[in-house]
User: What shape does this take?
Amino acid sequence: MQRIDLTLGIDVGGTNTAFGLVSRDGKIVFEKSILTFAELPAEQLFSRLFNDVNKAVKKLNSKYNVIGIGIGAPNANYYKGTVELPPNLNWGTVNILKLIKKFSPLPSAITNDANAAAIGEMLFGAAKGMKNFIVITLGTGLGSGIVVNGELVYGEDGFAGEIGHTIVDPNGRQCGCGRKGCLETYASAPGIRKTVFELISKTNLESELRKKSFENLTAKEIAEAAMKKDKLALEAFDYTAKILGMKLADSIAYTSPEAIILFGGLALAGNLILLPTKKYMEQHLLNIFKGKVKILPSKLSGNSAAILGASALIWNELNKN
Amino acid sequence: MQRIDLTLGIDVGGTNTAFGLVSRDGKIVFEKSILTFAELPAEQLFSRLFNDVNKAVKKLNSKYNVIGIGIGAPNANYYKGTVELPPNLNWGTVNILKLIKKFSPLPSAITNDANAAAIGEMLFGAAKGMKNFIVITLGTGLGSGIVVNGELVYGEDGFAGEIGHTIVDPNGRQCGCGRKGCLETYASAPGIRKTVFELISKTNLESELRKKSFENLTAKEIAEAAMKKDKLALEAFDYTAKILGMKLADSIAYTSPEAIILFGGLALAGNLILLPTKKYMEQHLLNIFKGKVKILPSKLSGNSAAILGASALIWNELNKN
Assistant: This one.
């Protein structure tokens, strides 16, 4: 009997850690989410996680065969196998690939969630068959995974692809990284919330969002208001798209991709963000690149997208051999 | 008798075209420069050029053997073998690799001068042994060649690596590309001349440069004034370095290189530009990259640098086989 190979994809988040078993063609045969408990050491998380995975594997039809482990995690270093001082996890710096050898002898790989998303799009999503593309994840921050000649760009130290920390305005908004004016202070879920409050302070545009405190306002609510033609919310999307489009024009000047794929929470606003971003990107492009580069929404399905990305990371490694 | 292989490196410029025969280890055994005659068709140039090359080869010791041709030219496309609407040459769009088959059956490759410089630094210069680096050419414009995992980044269409056309300020200086505020309007030979005139208009700094008209002022004179501690000239270098350093911090966020190498006319100002650029780059770097990335001067020797770059392009292709 022909056995069907699976890989385990793990997406480590500050609150929840999602994991699943995924086939070579991107079908998820098992998935689960557990609390991360960010205050506890990494080993505690992986001990619980592999307990669940081992139980799940026992229940699976014997035709399945798990052959590798891919992990997406904040501040992960692909080369070293480490997670280094993640902001939302009390892990310090820990070698995750070494650690999980305690639980499984399978080949494994780790990278940050944006890089995992990029490989996920390449194997299972909107970048299938593409050799040159960029994935931008728009969530709590702005992450990016750059693919050149079919290979993820890790750079000399494994930390390449920090487009969220390229500078829009050196005197601009305070960034969590300690600098000012990084792209992610504008183009991210908190970024568009800040833009709403900047517009409340600067304009007299009528808006239901004026009733909201900053802490209670979500990017989803801004999108909902915009869909109801709330002028201030629409203006906030336009401003976000303008800055994002301008910086994506820069990113095209770097690697001349076939497409840029928008992924993550804020990208779920769909055409509210895609269309104006495309417009402003085209406006700011160097002539030779105009009309060549697609902006596409992610094709990795919602809740499981991060699991697919993490699984794709190790499928991609296994495919190299 | 062991024969020594050479390649022909050709650097096409708007005024002069330099070419030479170069060994695998970067020694030039013959070199010459002829007028390009930018108004005449490309074929005319290559006809004269190969006439000279053939004569030179006949005179060479018979132990030499020419095995390939590399060309650096403005608006060259590596994938297509074309030069497309070069601004300083009346060539239109022409397939150069096809054209030179009329003169030589040898394997050939073409790219723009900045990409050729990057491969030149990798094979013969400051990037020897490096896998991830960026070469910035500071001359009439700002060109760049990005190397990732030992491979030049050409992107989907062959035009990647246009860092000179990333945007510093969307309301900034008019660029030759039709847009505003591109990096090359600040960091290039004309860019620093513009900065001198901006500083003359904005400050009362004493300076011998106040005696100069814009058309008569050269970047070399600004460097000479700065070396004599002319305050305005020093301020102009500082301003140039500040903008360049800030944008190089962005470029590190993209590809996390081991080094950035400065090449070309303005880079000949040496520490006048290298030291403040390094300082401002470090100031603007994301924490994880601080203190990791070298800024180095080109190690391709002066007048022959472009020939070495063009020759390196084809050596690199031949080495792949």
